[in-house]
Amino acid sequence: MSISRVSRAALLTTLVTAGVLSLSACGGDGNKAGGGGNSHFVTGSGGISTVAEADRRDAPKLDGAALDGKPLDVADYKGKVVVLNIWSSSCGPCRLEAKHFAKVSKETASQGVQFIGINTRDAEKGPAVNFEKDNSITYPSFFDPIGKLILHFPKGTVNPQAIPSTVVIDRDGKIAARTLVALDDVKLHKMIDPLIAEK
Fold first, then answer.
1. Is the pTM of this model over 0.85?
2. Among 20, 23, 94, 190, whose CB has the most other CB atoms within 10 angstroms?
3. How many CA atoms lie within 13 Å of 195's alpha carbon, on the beta-carbon side?
């Protein structure tokens, strides 16, 4: 094999590897939880996984600074259903689902639901703030550029490579549902309405 053919083969391998890494950085594999663990998730239609009430585990402590610089702590919302959406301004699927999250957050606010974003992979706040403005998002988001908060979740809960991801915490502060794919308003309601109905 000639040097030029070897160089071309090496270049092709590098490009394919870069493409795979790029794809895994936004979207990921919606069928893998990442990290194993006994999470008790049962995957239903639409890529939404749920946990029976008796099998739910405590959500991790999640606190830090919001995009607006104010302190933000998920524990302050215990007693509400908390919808945590992990997103990045550069993620195409995140842009597609953002308007649905903005809509459903307003529809369910009076039902004891609090939406909170976890913005990750944005090195600067500017693109993330503009993303929220462009999509009429009024709920707070953590600024978590290197994904430290994502690593607080128990193994088997979320895949750090899957963005967007959504995790729902029940009123008792336990992880009740998750998805590793983008959602529209119908699927989002399907995910959180059963938790709203729980007493």
1. no
2. 94
3. 32
